[in-house]
Amino acid sequence: NSIAATVHGGFINSPTNFDADRSVDYSSGMSFGGSLALQLYERISIKGSANFTNGSGTDVTGGINEEVTLDRQFYGAGVEILLVTGRRFEPYVYGGGGLVIVDRVGGTAVSYAYDITEFTGVVGAGIRYKFADPAFVFVDGANWIYNNAVTDSAQNDSSLSVGFGYRLG
Questions:
Q1: How many helices (H) and strands (E) does the chain have?
Q2: pLDDT tens string 109-162
C-alpha cells in the first residue's frame, strides 16, 4: 500500500443564479488545494481532498454595481479508480462526497452577505504523467454538486486544475 500526496491549482467556473432575488455577474475564480490517497489495490485508492476557491463579481441589482466576493471551500472523500496502470500515463476517475462552505461578502458593511454549509457530491477524472518515479504531474477536472440553500436549487461547480504529486511507499 502506498500513499500519494498532491497539490494543485487552477480555475473554477463562474456560478449562475447563485443569489436569490439578486442579479450578480460573477467571473471565473481561482482554485487551489491538495489531497492524500491511500492505495488499497493496484487500481483502487481512497482519496481525501481539500479545495479552496476565491472569486468575485458585481452585484448589479437595481444599478448598485457593488463588488462582491464568493469564496467556496470543498472538503471531500471518495474512491479513485485507475483505468490504466503500469504506464507513464495513468488516466483515472473518482467519485465521493463531502462538504462545501460558501462565503459571500459584499463591499460594504450593510451589504447582502451569507455563509452556508451543504453536503456535496463530487465526480471527476484526470490523467497523471509519471515523469520520475515516485513523482508525477497531473491534469484533473472535478464537478461538485450540491443544494444551494439561498436559492433552494441544485448548484454545479466545475474546476480544472494542474498539479504535482509524490507517492510514498
A1: 0, 10
A2: 656 778 889 999 999 999 999 998 899 999 999 999 999 887 888 889 999 999
- The model's pTM: 0.89
Locus of grid cell 463530487: 122
Cell of 108: 460594504
Amino acid at 34: G
Reference 71, options 86, 51, 97; nearest CA is 51
| C-alpha distances in Å from residue 107, one per residue of 1, 14, 18, 129, 160 | 49, 19, 17, 43, 28
Query: Contact, 75 vs 47, CB < 8 A?
Result: no
Q: Give the C-alpha separation, 169 to 167, whole Å.
A: 7
Q: Which among 74, 71, 126, 116 has a CA at the least distance from the CA of 97? A: 74
Residue 134 preceded by cis peptide, ω within 30? yes
